[in-house]
Design goal:
Layout: E1 6-11, H1 19-29, E2 33-38, H2 48-55, E3 59-60, H3 66-71, H4 74-79, E4 83-89, H5 91-99, H6 105-112, E5 117-121, H7 125-129, H8 131-142, E6 146-147, E7 151-154, E8 160-164, H9 168-178, E9 196-201, E10 206-209, E11 212-214, H10 221-232, E12 236-241, E13 253-256, H11 260-268, E14 275-278, E15 285-287, E16 308-310, H12 314-319, E17 328-335, H13 339-350, E18 354-359, E19 371-372, E20 374-378, E21 381-384, E22 388-389, H14 390-405, H15 409-414
Helix pairs in contact: 1-2, 1-9, 5-8, 10-14
Bound molecules: flavin mononucleotide.
Flavin mononucleotide binds near residues 41 and 42.
């Protein structure tokens, strides 16, 4: 989504500088070209060599380098980028930016640029809440600098509070949003930075004996695409996945399970969530008493009877009112007939907020296919979405979720 975009990444001297490696990898994975400027303090935390290896470009550190200046002058360096990203943005570099200083290459480039600037602050909580930093951030915002984070959390200095640099996935989402490279609909630009999301995906496998199981044709493509789309908008995503052949999405914590019981346990272990999306095709039933050893075929004997018992209802369990209930619970309804009526009924029965209903009758090719035709059922009514790729359905749903949840608490607190 960032194909061909040129990012000038300014790495300042904070502990969080190590996250730049992951940030560069993610940006390049999206097709962006990343060029790095490293401050003198930044070079105490990460090496020019590591940034150069990951960006596959020269790393600029020295303002008075004859070679650098003849190859790429400092003014040109600031102007040839589409976006300047300061990550981590230390208290020091924010102060220098606010004061309009040009005392090293990073500050000079930031003063000389006519391109948008994104800052990802990272510092001790007292530094972040100090009146000087608050005033500097205020000044920079008024001048048009965009901020992502900081997040609340435990810090390297054994303190807790706002000051942790946003995760690389959140920074990438902010970059996409600034460069207009995220979703293309009317809701483009929404962010899920600071939000915690759970997605379930794929089928479950219910053991009959150690070698046989009950399962279904779910490929996990739609659930995995949703996890990826939420992460791209900056959410911290846990993906609980049954056995699938699709690769793990980038920037997502993946918990692999087999059975519905294991899936429920993994969902309950995910902690406090803002949104939970249940895209997995959970088996409705499991064997009442799975055999401990392989059931042997007996010559002449009738086939063994298979007694089934219901699996836990994960969607209904998580939708139950209570302090642990996520603000938004989204279920999926895979139907082969009476799609909308069944989905409207399911939303009420399960107590969830939205249902994404899809027709999985064999003629549609939805199971395992690349495209999906869904209806979004909410308390307000039913929306018929056009046939889209599974990635497009995921992007559209992620945008709707971001719009529903509104702006993240940590960003509000920082303003
Ligand atoms: C171990 C260590 C960790 C530091 N971490 C941070 C940090 O996270 N945020 C910050 O604003 N300053 C931090 N500092 C202080 C900066 O490195 C210092 O202010 C430096 O001058 C920043 O220069 P720069 O902004 O030009 O990179 C740290 C210093 C040390 C020694």
């Amino acid at each position: 989504m960032l194909n061909g975009k040129r990012i000038l990444l300014i790495v300042a001297g904070g502990i969080a500088a190590f996250k730049c490696h992951d940030l560069i990898r993610r940006l390049r994975g999206q097709g962006a070209h990343v060029r790095c400027v490293l401050t003198e303090a930044g070079a105490r935390f990460v090496t020019p060599l590591s940034l150069q290896a990951l960006s596959e470009d020269k790393v600029y550190t020295d303002m008075f380098s004859l070679t650098d200046e003849s190859e790429m002058g400092h003014i040109e360096l600031s102007r040839e980028a589409d976006l300047l990203v300061v990550a981590p943005a230390t208290a020091n570099i924010l102060a220098r930016m606010a004061a309009g200083m040009a005392d090293d290459l990073a500050a000079t480039v930031l003063l000389a640029t006519d391109k948008p600037v994104l800052a990802a602050p990272a510092m001790n909580v007292r530094m972040w809440t100090h009146a000087a930093t608050v005033a500097n951030v205020e000044t920079l915002k008024k001048r048009g600098v965009t901020f992502v984070g900081p997040n609340d959390g435990a810090m390297a200095c054994n303190e807790y509070g706002p000051g942790r640099m946003s995760e690389p996935a959140e920074i990438v989402a902010a970059i996409e949003s600034m460069l207009g490279a995220s979703a293309t609909g009317p809701l483009a630009g929404q962010s899920l930075a600071g939000r915690r999301a759970l997605v379930t995906s794929g089928p479950t496998r219910e053991a009959i004996d150690p070698v046989r199981y009950i399962s279904n044709h779910s490929s996990g493509k739609q659930g995995h695409a949703i996890a990826s789309a939420l992460a791209k908008l900056g959410a911290e995503v846990t993906l609980v996945s049954g056995p699938v052949a699709v690769p793990d999405p980038m920037g997502v914590k993946v918990v692999k399970i087999d059975s519905a019981d294991q899936m429920l346990a993994a969902c309950q272990a995910a902690g406090q969530l803002d949104v939970a999306i249940f895209a997995a095709a959970v088996a409705d039933w499991k064997a009442a008493s799975p055999a401990g050893a392989k059931i042997k075929k007996q010559a002449g004997a009738p086939p063994p009877a298979l007694e089934l018992t219901p699996n836990p209802d994960i969607l209904a369990t998580v939708s139950r009112p209570g302090p642990q209930r996520p603000a938004l619970v989204v279920g999926f309804a895979a139907e082969t007939e009476n799609l909308v009526a069944n989905a409207v009924d399911k939303r009420k029965r399960k107590g969830c907020d939205w249902i994404v209903a899809n027709d999985v009758s064999p003629a549609t090719g939805t199971f395992g296919g690349e495209r999906n035709t869904v209806h979004l059922v909410t308390a307000e009514g039913v929306e018929a979405w056009p046939t889209l790729s599974k990635d497009e359905v995921a992007g559209r749903l992620a945008d709707r979720i971001a719009a529903q949840l509104g702006r993240p608490r940590s960003v509000k607190a920082a303003e």
